[in-house]
Specification:
Mean pLDDT: 92
CATH architecture of the largest domain: 3-Layer(aba) Sandwich
Order of helices and strands: EHEHHEEEEEEHEHEHHEH
Oligomer: single chain
Number of helices: 8
Helix content: 25-40%
Strand content: 15-25%
Shape: globular
Number of domains: 2
CATH superfamily of the largest domain: SPOUT methyltransferase, trefoil knot domain
Structural class: alpha/beta
CATH topology of the largest domain: Alpha/beta knot
CATH class of the largest domain: Alpha Beta
Length: 290
């Protein structure tokens, strides 16, 4: 594999998952746990963006999209900010069973004395002042960001620049932080094929039991990976694979993907669940970038 030399990660690693991924689970508790496992996989393998695409036209699917995106967004949000950003919602009834992410932007430290100069924190605007805005960053008192005028309840990323009589911070872009800083949740209003064609990813990897074994194409994937800034990995649904899903758009999967791979050849089970394929695929690809 390129002489075992780790490959540079793309600027944006995206994962596309179907809205029907929880359709085979009857109870909200089990749906919540399944989505939580997906969120853990996204964070574990440093995915930048998860795209939820519609794969069945139905009113139920709209509810599933709302459920998936709400739980994934809730899970990605640091615990101390959830009270600001999420009201009581039926989709979050079983949020207490969600596994914590424990990523760099989910710090356990909740005391101001433990803050370090230059430390990055996620925050929410709680009020406007004459000289700036106050931001809740999960410690005893809010930080002042001087010279900014931002609406209340807006989520921001800040860097600690002053401690003492007044705790101060400045706005930063999460993309400029070297550590992994969570994933974004995107809802596609277009089916998978159209979304892939319009987003113009540098590299698209489709997962399928009918794809080539990963070991047969690993060198080609490595070469394409090195040249790509944006990569998307697409996954099928519990009852339909990607070939079937894009066929309903009168499209062919080989025309949409650079590679169609099977990372679990000779599988003993009749089907691989979406969350299982997610872990297996991201784990294999992670070897190339770590």
């Amino acid at each position: 594999m390129q002489g075992n030399i780790p490959l540079k990660r793309p600027q944006t690693l995206s994962v596309a998952i179907p809205a029907s991924l929880v359709s085979d689970v009857p109870h909200l508790r089990e749906k919540t746990m399944k989505i939580g496992l997906i969120g853990r996989a996204l964070a574990t393998f440093r995915v930048d963006e998860v795209i939820v695409y519609p794969d069945i036209s139905s009113q139920r699917q709209l509810r599933d999209i709302e459920l998936i995106t709400t739980i994934l967004a809730y899970l990605e949000t640091p615990q101390y900010l959830r009270k600001h950003l999420f009201k009581i919602r039926p989709e979050l009834r079983y949020s207490g069973i969600l596994p914590p992410l424990r990523t760099p932007h989910h710090p356990l430290r909740s005391s101001e004395k433990d803050l370090a100069m230059g430390e990055f924190r996620e925050g929410v605007i709680i009020s406007q002042q004459k000289n700036g805005v106050l931001v809740d960053i999960g410690v005893e008192r809010p930080a002042l960001v001087v010279g900014e005028n931002i609406s209340k309840n807006t989520r921001v990323t800040v860097k600690i620049i002053e401690k003492g009589k007044q705790l101060k911070a400045q706005l930063v872009k999460s993309e400029d932080i070297q550590e992994y800083w969570g994933y974004k949740v995107i809802v596609s209003n277009k089916p998978l094929g159209r979304m892939l064609k319009e987003r113009h990813f540098d590299m698209v990897i489709a997962t399928s039991r009918f794809g080539k074994p990963f070991t047969e194409v690993v060198e080609e994937i490595c070469q394409k990976w090195k040249e790509s800034k944006t990569v998307c990995i697409a996954f099928g649904a519990p009852t339909r694979g990607l070939y079937e899903i894009v066929k309903h758009e009168n499209l062919n999967l080989p025309d949409l993907a650079d590679f169609i791979v099977n990372v679990i050849p000779d599988q003993a089970t009749e089907t691989i669940r979406t969350e299982e394929a997610l872990y297996a695929t991201l784990a294999v690809l992670n070897i190339m970038t770590s």
